């Protein structure tokens, strides 16, 4: 008879694989949505992408289904959006190495770079501004740079969440890694709601297209 620890390990692996074993690709589109941030540092401006992903999971009713996948060093949850399937991903790696988790998950789920959404903070937009854009450079964001490198593509659509740029360049790092102020925290619920609405609307619109053609448009809230 196997020791209890071996039985527990076998049971854990069986459950994890049962949750995340790939089924035949659904009839509709499949998308990967990755929230970029630093695990273990919730509430910071740099981890606002993780906050949006958490809000998205609650909206889609899968907030209690996160499962750790050691193959891509991330937490995954799978949700339905009409005829589309969304794979939500929270990398367990630090921001600068998050692309390794994103690229591995894309490989596991058979997705191209155009089918991978990145949700991340944006210094050059004021707090409260949200934009969806397909493709482009990292614009100085190390998490996006890691994803571009690991996916070997600039084509990923991004949901960019404005956190504002401080007046003095010497304070940028402290600003990004710092927590939202009390005044900013009052704005967060509405910001998370608007960001989630914008992301879901964009995914719905692209899911209805017959093909994934290039779309370089940028959508800004009023």
Automatic annotation (TrEMBL):
Superkingdom of this protein's organism: Eukaryota
Statement: the UniProt record of this protein carries the keyword RNA-binding: yes
Keywords of the record: Hydrolase, RNA-binding, tRNA-binding
E.C. number: 3.1.1.29
InterPro entries noted in UniProt: Pept_tRNA_hydro, Pept_tRNA_hydro_CS, Pept_tRNA_hydro_sf
Coiled coil: none
Pfam families: Pept_tRNA_hydro
Catalytic EC class: hydrolase
Family: Belongs to the PTH family.
Protein name from the UniProt record: peptidyl-tRNA hydrolase
Biological source species: Felis catus
